[in-house]
Write a structure and sequence with these properties.
Radius of gyration: 20 Å
Number of domains: 3
CATH superfamily of the largest domain: NadA-like
Bound molecules: 1,3-dihydroxyacetonephosphate, iron/sulfur cluster
Largest sheet: 5 strands, parallel
Mean pLDDT: 92
Strand order of the largest sheet: 1-9-8-6-7
Number of strands: 13
Structural class: alpha/beta
Order of helices and strands: EHHEHEHEHEHHEHEHEHEHEHEHEHEHH
Amino acid sequence: MQRIPMALAEADYEVPVTATITGARPRMDQSERSDLVSRIKTLLRQRDAVLVAHYYVDASLQRIAEETGGCIADSLEMARFGKEHPASTLVVAGVRFMGETAKILSPEKRVLMPTLEAECSLDLGCPADAFRVFCEQHPDRTVVVYSNTSVEVKALADYVVTSSIAVPLVTHLRDQGKKILWAPDRHLGDYIRRETGADMVLWDGACVVHDEFRSRELEKLRKDHPAAAVLVHPESPRDVILQADVVGSTSQLIAAVKERPEREFIVATDNRIFYRMQQAAPDKRLIEAPTGGHSATCRSCAHCPWMAMNDLTSLADALEHGRDEVFVAEEERQKALTATQRMLDFAAAHRRTVAGDA
Ligand code: 13P
Ligand code: SF4
């Protein structure tokens, strides 16, 4: 495995502190909240808009998506749902790359977000100029990038992948004899390389949330809960992944809670996913995997600080005033579309194969 030095150290970008953000708005009482929820639902109808939410956003937003015919999903399903839905406006509750992916796939639609300031440390840690140089150093490699990247980085790629389809897609490329250049998440890249045996060089990025899960503390927790299954998102460090019963995307982890026989689950991903997991399996017990906590660099503690910027007020503002609309440059969009569409086509073919085998 070859790595390049991290292009953008974590210290070079500001990670929002969740408590400051939620505390910045005056607290709403129950009746103000339900008035705001009703207003959002009315605005969604009036604006011919649909809400596309990630599992990591606040439960109040996930509930609105459920109740109004929107979707709550992982990044792959969000992309597919937004593209196929007939609404003229997509409101993407998540982080910026998710809004950009919606715009790449649906340029004719208006794409709004509760806030364009919701970033992702993987995206921020992989600037397009530095990434172009990395690609130029490896002209013989097929460029595969994680969806958690900017439109400019996707425009440099041969394939975009999300965590739910990364292993099958890289297996397919390996079988064609391709050598891979991967960016930006080093843990996910390392996991894909171990699963597929593909020849991969890795960019050195990390997710500020998943990077904080701690293997030694997880070992101790497993001893306290010997019957629990361990579910891990592959953005987590290798020593955490190696303790997992299931490694998968957010949707795959939710499916595991529903389908597996265990009654208890230790979950190493953003804890806002518990809303959907608990719905899928109300009688099962969910336990947060341990993070670095106060003694480490953790500033989010199992909740993405950028996902936390999506709230009811910013969602209502986006719909009311058309604020925080996503635009992407057309030339880059076209290039990024090619790499993104390849993922969707591959995922559709893969689903058919899996269904045929079942
Ligand atoms: P999923 O594609 O599994 O939803 O992951 C997106 C993400 O940002 C995880 O941190
Ligand atoms: Fe990015 Fe990590 Fe937040 Fe996911 S959880 S959006 S990878 S910073």
